[in-house]
Amino acid sequence: MWGAVDMRASGGSDPVIRVGIIGLGGAAAGMIGKFAENPRFSIAAAADVDEEILGRFARDFPDAEACPTAKALCATKNVDLVYIGTPNRFHREHAEMVLSSGKHALVEKPMAVSLEEAAAMCDAADRNGVLLGVNVKHSFEPRIQALREFTKSGQFGALRMLHHWRYQSWIYSPRTPEELTPEWGGGILWRQGGHQLDLLRTIGLGMVRSVRGSAQVWDATRHVPGAHSAFFEFESGATGTCVYSGYDHYSTKELVHGFTPG
Question: How many domains, the chain?
């Protein structure tokens, strides 16, 4: 997969992918441990504008480089892949910086806040001959891949319809300024919608023919959409819906057998 990586694990033949992290916020906190646990990866560097956070990283990973800026991390020769966990509005800037330095990039979702920015990021990857990925990871889970195999095999007949509906109190949970600023990609559609569509497209085997949908702002004190709903059709003729409300005071997880609150 990583054609540009040539660093080899000690005593083995598998490549070790040296990872750099730009943005040591909440998203990165969930990813760094996974990279560190996997023998195919090593944490090689990180960059953050917060000196205190960067200092904690340096103490946890004393052999890694602690860079004060994204530009400094991109300049290092000790990184093959960069995970970008900065706020949405910086994704294009940081992705183009990483890709132009000849490094692969894994960008936290959402990929960008406009189609134009997303297209520019893809162009940068093609232009520099490196890989660009978006971290919508649930579609790689075994249960989702099993459902995809049902669709591919036709074991239970042709897929005709699929739905993903979710209700919770997202909009009333503690949120960052980024998550509550519409032009920065805040709101339920940017934060959670990507997961829904990724799962549905994975199970449905690909491209969507048409989409009709809307996003709603139902609480004037929170200026971002807190709910969305959409109806779509796959090229195969299968249809589906995705609905998400973050205004509710319960979670649909409570309806799942075996769920334990907290």
Answer: 2
